[in-house]
């Protein structure tokens, strides 16, 4: 249906709203008859009513108990290609969030979701390329530009992670204020431009500077990337789709290793494959960001869940209609507030919504929309976000996730960034070829995690991957000076295990934060992630030498991974803790169920109350 048809349908629905029959109760309340959402196959598909009580009171008399009502077309219009939309009338923003949630669940997974995760996957490819590229550049930098000190090499490898620390923090805050998509597009542009400019660096200090700016883009991408993926798919499919999104890191790692081998490495005879400068490689690594930027701007809409949380009913309607259009569906849904002016949401969890004039709705977003500085220093928005993250009901989860992020980043980035240097110091003849095998080990890690994440759960997969990674680094330490084949094998096993750990962690960290502060929560976790990576660059840079202390490097990594495995065992993950169909609820989690409105966790089960789904 074209835009004119949509507006005609909306107008027709508005005219029929006043014609709906109403009944006067004994107490004078106006009621609208409702039906169950579970329609039989023989029912008219245009008559679709959302789950609520069979009798709904007028929002002016009982607005606190009922979130929405649905106004439907007559059955005679069901076969018309220009049928008016089903109008979902909500009382407040909580009702709008629930209505959007139910509609996204009804849509399910099809062409749109597959397209979104593929496009967003290129953003994860871009992140992998930017993070891993500097390790390959460092291997040949001294041959072209002259000797650099161990401290300079450590600063160079840490530069991108330092930028990611700042970019992830502010990117998460802006993502919860301005939206996921605009932040994602901005950070992808920063990423691509900085990668290109780094090719023109005239000294090691300029290269460090441009890598830091590139890190700003990389860090800002992550929180919005995962939030968009999570919020565009139904709850039951989130584990699978977020794991697929994580798997694109493997594509980036393999592309980076293969491109570095061709542009910077040697053939089997020890001769350079392409006799070109590292600057060409530095410029090429910005291409994935440009690809993701282009396709995201055209084919990935803003999250309907985010728009609903801001009270933007019309914008949420447009996103849902776009998804139906991509799926080739004639289903039309329109979200409306029951009053002319939508309600405003209090910044304090648990406080009922209050009605304000339209000009004051989403005052936080409107007051900060004019300047970036306003968004940074807006205490109403930032205090609310951090208050939710560190509230008693969320504190344990936030701190343990930050610990897991620190240890996992220290171990995985610490080895992957220095892997070519590590292979070279260990005496392997072709470090670029072996690094390519190391990158390819992402594949079994992704396959294993994709298969196990919904079978054994996120928490068990994460902790098991931590301990398996620690065992691999321990074996690596005892094989130094031994067989080159075994060294490469255990390093590949380590990479496969950390890949599975990252996939499980990505799903857990994304699911564990409330919708309103999701990107801020992901950003906080990623801050500890970046700190772990930065610390690893200086520790490993010192231990790589000269003189080299490879055994100490690997034993430190082993200890850190064991610590992460222990911490991951205590992370309260709602998807793992939710009772399976037919099981009795665990008494240990009854308190979490009672606080569901506060934590707003997304649980892949229909056992919870409707109010806890959004």
UniProtKB/TrEMBL annotation:
Residue segments, region Disordered: 1-83, 343-363, 572-614
Gene source species: Lagenidium giganteum
Gene3D superfamilies xref list: MFS general substrate transporter like domains
Protein name per its UniProtKB record: Major facilitator superfamily (MFS) profile domain-containing protein
Residue ranges, compositional bias (Basic and acidic residues): 577-588
Pfam families, per the entry: MFS_1, Sugar_tr
Membrane-spanning segments: 116-141, 153-175, 182-200, 206-230, 242-264, 276-300, 398-420, 432-453, 460-478
Keyword flag Transmembrane: yes
Record membrane topology: Multi-pass membrane protein
Signal sequence residues: none
Residue intervals of the Major facilitator superfamily (MFS) profile domain: 116-576
Subcellular location: Membrane
Primary location group: membrane
GO cellular component, one term: membrane
Keyword list, A-Z: Membrane, Transmembrane, Transmembrane helix, Transport
Coiled-coil ranges (or none): none
Biased composition (Polar residues): 20-40, 59-71
MF terms (GO), sorted A to Z: transmembrane transporter activity
